[in-house]
Amino acid sequence: MRAVKNLLVLYTGGTIGMLQTPEGLAPAGGFEARMRAWLDAHPEAPRPDWRLQEMSPLLDSANMQQGNWLAMRDAIVEAVKQDGHDGVLLLHGTDTLAYSAAALSFLLLGLDVPVVLTGSMLPAGAPDSDAWDNLAGALALFSQGLENGVQLFFAGKLMSGVRASKLRSEAFDAFAALPRHREGERAAELPTTLSYCQPRSPVNLAVLPMYPGIQAAHVRALLETGIKGLLLECYGSGTGPSDDEALLDALRDAGQRGVLVAAISQCMEGSVVFDIYEAGSRLRDTGLVSGGGMTREAALGKMFGLLGAGLDLATARHWFALDMCGERA
Ligand code: ASP
């Protein structure tokens, strides 16, 4: 834990800085001046020295794509390695904040600075907004001292970047890191091929929940799009319609085509333990890798970190099953 002295505030958009337009709230520039004005009016609020950088374009985070994760990763690495910043506060829309936090956790492995993501449910300046509380709370944490790695700070709670999800759309306390069964051996050492230095490229990934009515044809249609990774959100402890041979065949074919097929639980407090039910073991036997108790956000971000680095299927399966930064253990 060390106090940050030279903070980069990276502003990506989101409700926190949005202004009203005829079509509704939309991202707006000029947040640095508003933040300075608020801090000047609150000299008692602890904060390290900081400068603000705006990403371009500013986004409603509903529009975030893998390319934006890579752009954020580049801006953070440049700020640390070239400009000497020793901490980064990322201001981000809440809709996909947990996805970005998870993806960045894998894209920034080995970068020895704290990175905290925050945002707000109401715009800064709106009556009763949570914006300045979240921002000032995060600044105070940086000046007190934070562990290296990616975390999320919201409504007074500091959460691991690979454990949090947005649970609520109409409450200030929008994020939580729910208890999920943790399992997975911690990787002793991470290879340089998976560190922040490794360039990544966008990769075609899909997430598919199990639901009564899912068909082999649905899985096959996804495979036809050329996906390289398929994250299945199974029922409960990792089950699915295991008496549907056509569906099992489609999953088996996916693995044979070189697709990383992994399973997580669709229960917010669940985890995959295939062997509990025959309906789970039969799915596992198609070649699925267990994502244990990983959240959707963490599992998707991890798939991107692994496959986006160009790993072959066997190596990606190996790392997916190990704990790399607290996502499983
Ligand atoms: N739609 C907004 C966004 O994700 C919601 C928010 O920031 O709270 O950018």
From TrEMBL:
Gene3D superfamilies assigned: 3.40.50.40, L-asparaginase, N-terminal domain (3.40.50.1170)
InterPro entries, per database record: Asp/glu_Ase-like_sf, Asparaginase/glutaminase-like, Asparaginase/glutaminase_AS1, Asparaginase/glutaminase_AS2, Asparaginase_C, L-asparaginase_C, L-asparaginase_I, L-asparaginase_N
Transmembrane segment boundaries: none
Keywords: Hydrolase
Similarity-based family: Belongs to the asparaginase 1 family.
Gene Ontology biological-process entries: aspartate family amino acid metabolic process
The protein's name: asparaginase
EC number annotated for this UniProt entry: 3.5.1.1
PANTHER family: 60 KDA LYSOPHOSPHOLIPASE, L-ASPARAGINASE
Record bears the keyword Hydrolase: yes
Keyword Nucleotide-binding part of the UniProt annotation: no
Protein origin, superkingdom: Bacteria
Pfam families reported in the protein's UniProt record: Asparaginase, Asparaginase_C
Residue intervals of the L-asparaginase N-terminal domain: 7-179
Domain Asparaginase/glutaminase C-terminal: residue ranges: 206-320
One GO location term (cellular component): cytosol
GO molecular function terms listed in the Swiss-Prot or TrEMBL record: asparaginase activity
